[in-house]
Design brief:
By secondary structure, the protein is mainly α. The protein has 4 helices and no strands. The longest helix is centred in the middle third of the chain and has 34 residues.
């Protein structure tokens, strides 16, 4: 493995850890706090958290994508057992992208009250956060699978 591959693998892993860290923190810290009545306006809080995290999420996605292309170019044709792993990993990443779009463009705006124009009342009932709770838990799980597949592809 050359220095470019090592650097790309390192940045690739950091990018997924940043993304995974956000969704795990959201799932295990922020949403349980909101669900237990930590705020009278959970919809506005979750939207503010999302806006604050969005630059980190976008940078991690860009880094993950660019380093992934570098790693694919470096590994293509080197080992046939690598191909099924990378295909599965891509399918999981596509599922994460779709789920991320749903969270960012549908669930959070609904919680914040900005889904419709003009804006509607933001969520105040913590039970209405359940779709975001489930989606962030799913995103955390999918991110962990991507991290596992990243490690597995390095061994293949």
């Amino acid at each position: 493995m050359n220095a470019l591959s090592v650097g790309a693998t390192w940045i690739h892993a950091i990018a997924i850890v940043v993304l995974l860290g956000y969704y795990v923190t959201l799932s295990l810290v922020v949403l349980p706090w909101l669900s237990s009545g930590g705020s009278t306006e959970p919809g506005r809080v979750i939207a503010a958290v999302e806006r604050r995290a969005l630059p980190w999420i976008l940078v991690s996605i860009v880094l993950f994508t660019v380093t992934g292309m570098v790693l694919i170019a470096a590994h293509s044709g080197s080992n046939p057992s690598w191909t099924p792993l990378i295909i599965v990993k891509h399918l999981v990443v596509v599922a994460m992208v779709i789920l991320g779009i749903v969270i960012d463009r549908v669930l959070v705006p609904r919680a914040d009250g900005t889904w419709w124009t003009p804006a509607v009342v933001p969520l105040t009932d913590v039970h209405d956060l359940q779709p975001i709770v489930l989606a962030s838990a799913a995103m955390s799980s999918l991110g962990a699978v991507v991290l596992l597949l990243t490690a597995a592809t390095q061994l293949a």
